[in-house]
Design goal:
Length: 1320
């Protein structure tokens, strides 16, 4: 809670919700304790979206003046609007998606007086006691604690001088578009019914479920009440419908308003029972349960769960899930020693999953007790009583972090037989735990500060993963992340500027999650050198302790405050660091040259930063196009590349005696010249195998014994396998030439390491020979140094020596498995015809040595008990798939080898699942079928020029892939990973014209009921194959899925795929693959066409920019009417949330220029028509439009009686009183018809009496002079007898008559008038 400028603040809130699964609706109430800060408070302002307010009271008094500006009702547009009016909706949407959100609900207080608070009241005493409540902290002893509830100190906002107001609001939500998701409630959905909140830190995310003050900066305590059915069988019970008792099941549920029309079949019928109907519903909430669930007072088939959260938290961090969950206690996996050491700081860890997933939950989350103990020890107390995880379906993200509860996707659960998902799932769940500190307890002060919170949480995650999986795994993954940053951080905003756009795009948030923790890691390294202490650990710990103690107001962390903390604890100024890595974008690129000066005994080194000249331009891809187009719509400005990065860099020189000497240099300019002193007087040791053996023999050691047992031979610790003469001949090994050995003997140091302590996110190009990189690979135990050496050998020109070095690295089990995998992937480059396919031979021989029967290429049965061996077994086929000949094709021998691996795969006696291994083999085999380049400008596949052996191998490969695809349909693999891989393979083969295009192959996988990841993959395949451009029915289907599919996960995924498909069209990849791709070269006809190469080149270059690509896209799709209609239908869907609506509106903005005008349909004139139906019966009805022209009735000859009113007065004069059209009287048929004329009866009035005698009025009517005694002037036709002219019917409207309205009697009553010129 914090004081607001509008005279109110919130102290406590109670929320009660009733979940209706049958109709997918919510009904509830909220009670908000308002603490006035001003005695003149007249209105209470709250946020409320998609809620229909039924009733409101303040202190029990009804409220009669409620203004609710519901934003979802604004997102409606006229039926005649088209896709060109997208800007109208976008303006309405932009008015909602901003921070802070507008107050949609304004409640005017009834007549009451804001009373001063009684300091002796119970409420005031309770508030004052909460101000002084203490808590145990990690810094205190194990036995030191204070009684009472653990509340965050809030001395500035717990007490106000006025008595609180109790605002109660009753409401209902019938059409849920944001904030809540129902699963398993659609007809035909066989999943267990459950529902959950979809929290997000976006502004306005919490008020979609209950009226509140929305924002992560608003905090108070909570009471939660959730009413749910007692069991699954009670879902459709209502007071009016008791006959449906016992018929509901957990399989097929309806969404009809009438329960009698709801189809219900029990999944348990297959087993002959209805056990699922008896499964109890459970509520998991981000608060502590008070008691056991209570029965509903009036509806016994329902029960009420009550919760209380005594920690002040923001509304966005309140969440709950309802379903037939199973409760699993994960605390049993905590070590007894850790539990005793933690004492009262021990935190319970609970897991909740749907029936049947208990074993998977335990296997997935067994590490969490250890993780939470680590976090508490390192970073401070966990402020909640327990940590809970609930796994659900259809979640759009992997995890949603709320107070003491993480709602996770079921995709994360995996059994103990799965290996591949261990690292990513462990990282995701650990981040959900770390977010309880950085993300819940401490939040960003502004959206631009979100990098601090996200980076802190992921940095804490990395610290635990380092403790759990080892230093090599942690540093290797960190190096991979740094490389990915260098790949992505091109033409991007800075970390700080990423938060300028609210809400933040998923792509931008992913980049923040990638770069922010790496920036904090290099900051940690630099702070360690400045102060020789763990400064960043101390800063993070003090931040959380300050939030607990109330020193960090409302837990708000800003970038400026974080910088001050770091500078205060390190006693150094850090402004240059944050200006470069937080407020600036890009990364440095270093070119390093070195030379040893024997005369001066120094190493001369030059370090040049070339990022301004050599930073690569990102090649526009379909995915990049959509990101660039979205940024262009939001006017995001990219900053320039920084020409110079400054800071310390550690240079480690391993001199001739093997001793490393570190030198720290401070880079301040674009080019830095260094003179590094040399310390060793001995020459570099020679590297030949015989000299090594002699050196080892002279030392009296056996080189076959592992290095860690012989410290005297540290120079040859790794990579010294396959050294015997027999192995050298068998493996076709190569060694250094005499010239190389001579050069090596003249060198004065072993190798040079730049940035040895990983203090930079950069690219390094070091000018040193290959043998120095070999020494670094074999002697340096740092996994990053080994990785740098492997990357160097993968980039230089291939040779037999390089292949020998890499295969020795692959075969040495002492290397970290990641280094061995990288060596295997680099070996594929050495498989060339010039080297007699040596790299291919080494890879196959290594696989045979590790995983095949002796002297055979048939693999043994799978045994994945050694995870390191499993990763190597998966990497070698991937590496072999990259082998290519000079024409870009894979040799048939590799295809046959991979086919044999698939065909003879045996997992019978393996304790682990081989689904991912089979998928890896399938992908590798499919990669061999597609050439790396097409080799000709006619863009057809050169299958005709292959030999028969290659064609047979291709046919066998496709058949083998299809066989595994069919097998997965009958016996599903883990999450249907084999089917998903098969669909991806078919897409790639179709794009490469290896197989014919057939959308029918993918359509069955897009149906509802298919696994969500498989459905998403099928949509990806169809869009990538040109469905958006060539198949109008598919365009309708895809747009319908984007707008109206019941799964939010599928909607979001298809929207992203749709954007990528638009990028393919913009980049010229729009054409779908033609079936007749195998063309006969003899049938080709070359025609000369006058093509301007300059224009062609200009068009190709324009596609490389976002603006040019958008122009191409609009030109291609300007006449695609089906896409216009389908996109607009998706925009008008009532199932889309705000973020989804914004995504589709962005597509419309990219495709079509907005039009500020649209068709307006006005209602036509309504008239009464009559029809003679016979037998003296007339049928009257109202009709729209112009009435039919009546036939002119004949009238007698006009009379010669004079008229005192000129007949030229127009009938369109303004009227204040309108009379209905009079019906003509029946008259005798005249001998001579007279054309109709205007009526002669006019009552002329002048209410103001300002006309002068003889003046002409506005309507051409002569106005008589004023007469104070006259009110009405009667004309001669009024006072005399009727004449034929006065009995004439009204004129018939014709084309020449401008006014087709009914006859008007215009009354102008003057204050003074005359009657026949006389005063009455």
């Amino acid at each position: 809670m914090r004081h607001r400028a509008d005279g109110q603040c919130t102290g406590h809130q109670k929320v009660g919700l009733e979940v209706d699964f049958a109709r997918k609706q919510l009904k509830g109430f909220t009670e908000v304790t308002i603490n006035p800060t001003d005695s003149t408070l007249k209105q209470i302002r709250l946020n409320s979206r998609q809620c229909k307010i039924i009733k409101a009271t303040v202190n029990g008094k009804p409220v009669y003046h409620i203004k609710h500006n519901e934003p979802y009702n604004k997102f409606k547009i006229h039926n005649t609007s088209t896709v060109y009016q997208h800007q109208m909706l976008r303006r309405k949407l932009d008015g909602v998606l901003h921070d802070p959100p507008d107050h949609e609900l304004v409640i005017t207080l009834p007549k009451m007086k804001i009373e001063p608070a009684d300091p002796f009241s119970i409420a005031t005493q309770h508030a004052l006691s909460n101000r002084s409540t203490g808590r145990a902290t990690p810094d205190a002893g194990a036995g030191v604690s204070t009684p009472g509830p653990m509340l965050t100190a809030r001395p500035d906002n717990m007490y106000t001088p006025y008595a609180p107001l109790m605002l109660r609001i009753e409401y209902e939500i019938k059409n849920i578009r944001d904030g809540f998701t129902f699963v398993g409630c659609e007809s035909g959905d066989m999943r267990y019914p459950h529902a959950y909140t979809t929290n997000s830190p976006l502004p306005g995310a919490a008020c979609c479920l209950f009226p509140t003050l929305d924002g992560i900066h608003e905090r108070w305590t909570w009471d939660i009440e959730i009413t749910v059915p007692r069991t699954i069988g009670d879902i459709f019970k209502t007071p009016e419908s008791e006959k449906l008792k016992g018929k509901m099941n957990n399989g097929i549920n309806g969404t009809h308003d009438d329960p009698e029309d709801t189809p219900m079949t029990s999944r348990a019928e297959d087993d002959g029972g209805e056990g699922d109907d008896d499964l109890d519903f459970m509520v998991v909430c981000s608060a502590d349960p008070l008691d056991e669930p209570e029965s509903h007072p009036t509806e016994p088939w329902k029960k009420v769960f009550k919760f209380f959260q005594n920690q002040p938290i923001a509304p966005q961090h309140i969440s709950f899930a309802v379903g037939p969950f199973e409760n699993v206690s994960l605390s049993e996996y905590r070590d007894q020693e850790n539990e005793e050491a933690m004492g009262i700081m021990t935190v319970d860890v609970l897991g909740y999953c749907l029936p049947g997933r208990e074993a998977d939950l335990k296997n997935t989350c067994m590490f969490l007790p250890k993780a939470i103990d680590f976090m508490v020890k390192e970073f401070g107390q966990y402020i909640f009583s327990s940590f809970k995880l609930c796994f659900v379906d259809d979640l759009t993200t992997d995890t949603v972090e709320t107070a003491s509860l993480a709602i996770c996707s079921n995709k994360l659960l995996f059994p103990e037989t799965i290996i591949d998902t261990i690292w990513p799932v462990t990282k995701s769940l650990t981040y959900s735990l770390a977010a309880q500190w950085a993300g819940i307890q401490v939040v960003p002060k502004d959206w631009a500060d979100i990098w601090v919170i996200v980076g802190m949480a992921y940095w804490m995650t990395g610290c635990f993963l380092k403790n759990l999986m080892g230093n090599n795994e942690y540093r290797f993954r960190l190096k991979k992340d740094a490389e990915k940053i260098c790949e992505l951080d091109i033409d991007r905003p800075s970390l700080y500027a990423q938060g300028f756009q609210v809400p933040i795009e998923p792509d931008q948030l992913d980049f923040i999650k990638l770069k922010a923790p790496v920036v904090l890691t290099i900051l940690e390294k630099r702070l360690w050198k400045l102060s020789s202490s763990m400064v960043l650990h101390r800063v993070v710990r003090k931040t959380f302790l300050s939030a607990v103690a109330g020193e960090l107001k409302n837990g708000l962390m800003s970038t400026a405050h974080f910088i001050r903390l770091c500078e205060k604890n390190s006693h150094n100024k850090l402004e240059p660091f944050f200006q470069q890595w937080v407020y600036g974008s890009g990364y440095p690129r270093f070119e390093i040259s070195q030379r040893f000066n024997k005369k001066r005994m120094i190493v001369e080194m030059g370090i040049r930063q070339v990022q301004s000249q050599q930073t690569p331009q990102r090649r526009m891809t379909p995915t990049d196009f959509w990101k660039a187009a979205s940024e262009n719509q939001r006017h995001i400005v990219i900053g320039p590349v920084q020409p110079v990065f400054t800071g310390p860099m550690t240079i480690r020189i391993h001199e001739a005696d093997g001793t490393p000497y570190e030198h720290v240099v401070d880079l301040k300019e674009g080019y830095t010249k260094l003179d590094i002193p040399y310390n060793t007087k001995y020459k570099r040791l020679k590297r030949s195998r015989r000299q090594k053996e002699r050196a080892a023999a002279g030392a009296g050691v056996d080189v076959s014994v592992e290095v860690h047992q012989n410290d005297d031979v540290l120079l040859y610790c790794l990579g010294d396998v396959l050294q015997s003469e027999e192995e050298v001949d068998d493996w076709q090994m190569s060694d250094w030439t005499k010239e190389d050995e001579e050069k090596m003997s003249q060198e004065s140091f072993e190798w040079i390491r730049m940035d040895a302590d990983f203090e930079w996110i950069c690219t390094l190009n070091i000018g040193q020979p290959d043998y120095m990189f070999l020494s670094q690979l074999q002697q340096d135990r740092d996994v990053i140094a080994q990785y740098d050496s492997i990357r160097h050998f993968a980039s230089v020109r291939e040779s037999a020596l390089i292949s020998s070095i890499l295969v020795r690295t692959l075969m040495d089990r002492r290397y970290y498995y990641g280094i061995r995998v990288e060596a295997a992937m680099a070996l594929a480059r050495c498989a060339t015809a010039d080297l007699d396919w040596l790299g291919q031979t080494h890879l196959m021989k290594a696989f045979q040595e590790f995983f095949c029967f002796p002297n055979s290429s048939i693999p043994r049965g799978n045994d994945f008990s050694d995870f390191t061996a499993y990763y190597i077994q998966s990497a070698i086929p991937r590496a072999l798939a990259g082998v290519r000949n000079i024409s870009g094709d894979c040799p048939p021998s590799v295809k046959r080898w991979l086919i044999d691996c698939l065909r003879y795969n045996d997992n019978t006696n393996n304790a682990f699942d081989d689904s991912y291994y089979i998928a890896n083999l399938m992908s590798s085999l499919a990669k061999t079928l597609t050439p790396s380049n097409k080799g000709n400008e006619f863009n057809y596949y050169e299958e005709q020029f292959e030999d028969q052996e290659g064609q047979d191998a291709q046919s066998l490969a496709i058949k083998e892939i299809e066989r595994y695809k069919r097998m997965d349909a009958w016996k599903p693999s883990y999450r249907n990973i084999v089917s998903e891989t098969a669909l991806d393979i078919l897409r790639g083969l179709t794009l490469r014209n290896v197989i014919d295009l057939d959308f029918k192959t993918f359509m069955p996988y897009t149906r509802e009921g298919t696994l969500d990841t498989v459905r998403a993959k099928a949509f990806d395949c169809m869009i990538d194959l040109g469905a958006l451009h060539e198949k109008p029915p598919l365009v309708r289907y895809i747009c319908y899925t984007m707008g109206k599919d019941p799964s939010p996960y599928i909607r979001r995924h298809v929207q992203a795929a749709f954007g990528r498909g638009l990028g393919m069209i913009a980049m010229g990849e729009k054409k779908s693959v033609q079936n007749a791709h195998r063309m006969d070269p003899s049938s080709l006809t070359i025609e000369e066409v006058n093509v301007d190469p300059a224009n062609t080149r200009k068009e190709e270059l324009s596609k490389g920019t976002s603006v040019g690509a958008m122009a191409v896209l609009r030109k291609e799709l300007q006449n695609h009417e089906i896409m216009k209609e389908s996109l607009w239908d998706a925009v008008r869907s009532d199932k889309l949330g705000l973020i989804e609506l914004r995504c589709i509106l962005d597509m419309c903005a990219v495709l079509y220029e907005p039009k500020l005008s649209h068709i307006v349909v006005l209602k036509q004139q309504k008239h009464l028509s009559v029809e003679h139906v016979g037998k003296a019966m007339l049928k009257f009805k109202w009709a729209w439009g112009k009435p039919q022209k009546p036939k002119p009735a004949p009238v007698p000859a006009p009379s010669s009686a004079p008229s005192s009113v000129p007949s030229s007065a127009p009938s369109s004069a303004p009227a204040s009183v309108k009379a209905p059209t009079p019906q003509p009287l029946p008259v005798a048929k005249p001998q001579t018809p007279v054309p109709p004329h205007r009526p002669s009866i006019k009552l002329i009035t002048n209410p103001r009496g300002t006309a002068n005698r003889g003046s002409q009025g506005q309507n051409g009517v002569s106005k008589k002079p004023k007469d104070p005694k006259s009110a009405v002037r009667r004309t001669a036709s009024m006072s005399g007898s009727p004449t034929p002219s006065s009995m004439a019917p009204p004129p018939t409207p014709t084309a020449s008559t401008p006014n087709s309205q009914p006859r008007k009697i215009i009354l102008k009553l003057p204050k003074q008038s005359t009657l026949n010129g006389k005063t009455p």
